[in-house]
Amino acid sequence: MLAGTVAAAAIVGSAFAGMWGGPRGLVTGELGVVVVAALVLYLMVLRAGRVLIGLVAVLGACLSFMAPDVAAGVVLQHRGLVEPARVASVQTTTEHGRTVCSVEGVGAVRAGAEVWRGCAASIAPGDTLPVVYDPRGRVPARGVAAPGELVKAELWLAALAIVFVGVCTVAVVRSFRLEATGHGA
Questions:
Q1: Of 31, 145, 147, 170, which residue is 20 to 30 A from 69 by alpha carbon distance?
Q2: What's the half-sphere exposure (Cβ side, CA atoms, 13 Å) at 63?
Q3: What contacts 113, CB < 8 A, 6 or more positions away?
Q4: What is the mean pLDDT of residues 63-86?
């Protein structure tokens, strides 16, 4: 349980530290991937089982890539500023089926920033769209989130972290093999 808890805390903590003001290298979640790789190596040394090790790797990677996005939302909620930005172009991506608006620079929002929250097919170039941005420039600008969206993302992150710790615990416990001792007479 300790290994999973320490790894989850390092993954999520590094993402939040990077967004709040730590080293820029922590913003992307790459340190989380390194932590997961170290944990996977540790479980391999313990001989925890390939399926459990694979599950820990997948859950850890998901946690590593989800934590920076949730951290960005938290930072923008606490210190973000909302300003209207002029839409430069609108396009629908086939990747996620989202409509993405490219906005012109306003305040600390860089020109060409792409936002999908609040962007719809009914938006046309020249319209304005509310954009929340970090005045310190650490967090990328994004459209204003719907009420409850951040809480939902935080709950998903917490649930994923709990499952990750649980699977790590099972993997470590699985690595301790009990050997039968014969009591012959």
A1: 170
A2: 31
A3: 85, 102, 103, 105, 131, 140, 141
A4: 89
